[in-house]
Amino acid sequence: MGFEFHKTILTLLFVIFPIFTTGCISRQLMNGGANAENINTNIIDDNDKRNQQHHHHHTSMSNKGESVCPCADDKLCEPISTPTRKEVFAYVGSPDTDWKAFDWNKITTIWTHKNYTSIAQLMCFAHSKGARVIYLSQLLQQPDFQVPSRRYEWILTEFQYTLDNHLDGINIDYEYNVTRVGMEEDAKALTAFMSELTAVFKGHFSGYQISFDAPWSPICCLRYYNYVEMSKMIDFIFVMSYDQWFPFEIVLSYAGPNSGLLQTIKGIQEYIDSGVPSNKLIVGVPWYGYNQSCTHLIEDNCYMRPRSGVETAYKEAMVLLKTSSIGGRKWDNTNKSPYFNYKDELGQVHQMWYDDPESLKYKYELVPQMELAGVGMWTADMLDYSNSSSVTSAQTKAMWDALPQY
């Protein structure tokens, strides 16, 4: 009954009344989106009276076995209704990660990938701590994205997954190229899609959280999406302020910071200057670094082949720093980033750029300085939770301690 009920409702919304859906919402968005915020607000307002009814209906269906609450206390299956607050996002993806060891006094939203093996246990535990649980969903690949029926089918599936698993929202990860010229229709289709998605999720329960992943700068990486219009509809744009050092214009280049402070500030300011409200931006930081193999190491400049770095978890970088580094930890004061050089067992010289509590604090401080919505890391899996030694336990604690608490 649960899926068929919601499928019927959404079919009415998207198929029988396409003039309202694509004609009223999508067409206005595609023609400039000047009234996007008002359109979305009206949809939510019209459904506010039904929020409690829909929520009660969903709970009733769950009790009948359609989506049984897996928690010891049925109240934990209710979505979190905490109003807007400063956020600390934590991502967990590995089934082996001991997420109960996280600092739950700081986490406000935890997110994972779809079909995470322990999502029921994670949901129950996080809700008991007052934290939202959302999931990362990778959007349709082009060209299916342009087809309204494919978008609607995708929304149906994701919405039902959210209901079935008693989650609190969805994070959209769309990392396909949309050039400034020649792909305007793709950008418009993405904006229309986010409007349709928001109408369904927020129409069911206005407390659902919707976020969208974006590169470190709105003008980098060939992703010219309409971030301004999207920011009017959704709760947050998660700015991935990492993977910044990818020089590929020349045959050889040199290693540099994964998440330099100056580049991070520059990228966030570019979002704000474009018209995205600062309180819609989450600054995403890396709990990992890049291991670069040097063709030459001259005055601490590691010359290497572009885009040849290997992503390395913080816990693995700390092992290399302790066992193999040449000269220990170094500090780039301009970029506020640590790095070190080391030799592998074959004598090959490497340079590792990463982030640690000292460098991360500079980026966390941007939240009050730039009036941002909060912070988040990619990923909480990158630390050592084994308690195998006092050193690794102290390193893990220091990383969590560096996070702000809101």
Automatic annotation (TrEMBL):
GO molecular function, one term: chitinase activity
SMART domains: Glyco_18
InterPro entries per record: Chitinase_II/V-like_cat, Chitinase_insertion_sf, GH, GH18_Domain-Containing, Glyco_hydro18_cat, Glyco_hydro_18_chit_AS
GO CC entries: extracellular space
GO biological process: chitin catabolic process; oligosaccharide catabolic process
Cited Pfam families: Glyco_hydro_18
The keyword Transcription regulation is assigned to this record: no
SUPFAM superfamilies assigned to the protein according to its UniProt record, in alphabetical order: (Trans)glycosidases
Domain of life of the native organism: Eukaryota
Keywords: Glycosidase, Hydrolase
Record carries keyword Hydrolase: yes
Family: Belongs to the glycosyl hydrolase 18 family.
PANTHER family tied to this protein: DI-N-ACETYLCHITOBIASE (PTHR46290:SF1)
Protein name, entry field: Uncharacterized protein
Species name: Owenia fusiformis (Polychaete worm)
Lineage of the organism: Eukaryota, Metazoa, Spiralia, Lophotrochozoa, Annelida
